[in-house]
Amino acid sequence: MNRREFLLGAATAPLALALGPRVGVARAGMSGPLALVTADLESHVVMVRLPNGASIGRIPTGPGPRSIESAPAGVAVVAHTQHGVVSLVDVPPGAVRKELDAFTEPRYTAVHPSGAIAYVTDSGNRQVVAVDLARGRVLARVDVPGPARHVSISPDGRALWTSLGSTARQLAVFDTSEPRRPRLVTTITPPFLAHDVVFSPDARSVWVTSGSERRVALYGRESRRPARVIGADAPPQHVAFGRGEVFVASGDDGTVRRHRLDGELLSRARVPLDSYNVTFGWGSAVTPSLGRGTVSILDAGGRVRIVRRIAKAAHDACIVSTT
Asked: Which domains does the chain have, with CATH numbers?
């Protein structure tokens, strides 16, 4: 589908999806913490209440919503990788506010702690793109020596790391002390082909997962070599930080491992296969299944609360609060 078809898609949608902006069809009482889950094959984002997993509605989008990241004030950034578009979603009311037709293959997003700027990786253009969330416009584009993919920003907003591919030979490190003008500082060669990269909430460490091995590397923020390499389940792995603990998902093994911040393994839970991405908030870890269309919700102790099928396919999730 070309981009003109993408942007005009709502005009040919069923009536319930075509009135005004793309507004979610939701039951009353859309408040409290919600998981927003991408329904890749159905062109919408599913709203799931936490912690009970009830599906309370959907937010229609253009085709192929692939990744999603939350920002303050109930905003979410959705990347439609195959269509070169990024959507800005407001929750509530549950509507796409703007679609940015300014990318080739947008992958993932890191939001500056101020909530004003999002950094979107564009693997097709080999760039990291800074976006003004309020105005919905591109601020800057920075070239990187590879197809930028997973990305994370430090809690103080002064540093950003991105992997340069799904099985990346290098990581790119940015100075974001001037948020509107990110600057590439250096590259790092990890001890394996890297996949995901995530800053810890205390900014002391960066967890880098593998796209090819059963290993995860723990870096110090200023280090160019890992302080520790720990074992993991099947690659690729993805990481989310909880309340002093770390959740590492393996979609190919159908597991979520829970670690201490130093990397020590605490527990291991079974979830549906293809549950690749994972996020944490409001005492819940959420992992959607790309192949099964399920969403699994785990408590802070790593125990599975509920598994519910919500879509044909579900690639990514984020958590927002609507109160």
From this structure: 3-18+30-321 (2.130.10.10)
**Given the structure tokens 């699994």, which residue do they identify?**
296
How many residues in the chain? 323
Per-residue pLDDT of 157-191, as tens digits, reads: 999 999 999 999 999 999 999 999 999 999 999 99
Judge contact between 53 and 85, C-beta under 8 A.
no
- How many CB atoms neighbour CB 310 within 10 A? 20
Quick one: DSSP state of residue 168? B
SS3 state at 30? coil
pTM: 0.91
* Spatial distance between the Cα atoms of 301 and 321, rounded to a whole number of angstroms: 21
Which distant-in-sequence residues (6+ apart) come within 8 Å of 19 by Cβ? none
The residue behind tokens 């599975």 is 304
The amino acid at residue 278 is: V
